[in-house]
Design goal:
With about 120 residues, this protein is α+β, with helices and mostly antiparallel strands. Helices cover about 40% and strands about 15% of the residues.
């Protein structure tokens, strides 16, 4: 459930998404956009200053990390989540993660497939 609060200047602010809400969103995306075997992946939100990106998939732990700072921006969070879910699903299908953090042609093809399915509609 989306919550709102009023800041010091009386602006109505949408609360950041919780891990539970993000997990529910990930389950919805998994069902809608990723047919086949479902990877066992957990989602963790971090506020570590050492974490510089919006998101990261950790194959060994089967964990998607998301930066706490993006939880306030729902569209940015959804884009990051979809990106990391591509990594997770490719890993579950036997693609190894690239230690240089490159995105191979298969990854880019998955992004195009999701775009064709409308996953990024109203996000970009």
């Amino acid at each position: 459930m989306t919550n709102y609060y009023i800041d010091d200047q009386w602006n109505l602010i949408k609360s950041p998404l919780s891990v539970h809400e993000i997990s529910r969103l990930a389950n919805d995306y998994q069902e809608k956009y990723f047919p086949g075997p479902k990877p066992e992946v957990s989602i963790q939100v971090t506020n570590s200053p050492l974490f510089h990106g919006a998101g990261c998939y950790e194959p060994a732990a089967k964990k998607i990390w998301l930066a706490e700072r993006v939880t306030e921006f729902e569209n940015t969070l959804k884009i990051a989540l979809l990106h990391e879910m591509i990594h997770a699903n490719m890993h579950a299908r036997g693609f190894d993660a690239d230690p240089n953090h490159e995105h191979p042609p298969e990854f880019k093809a998955e992004v195009r497939r999701l775009m064709a399915l409308g996953a990024y509609d109203d996000l970009l």
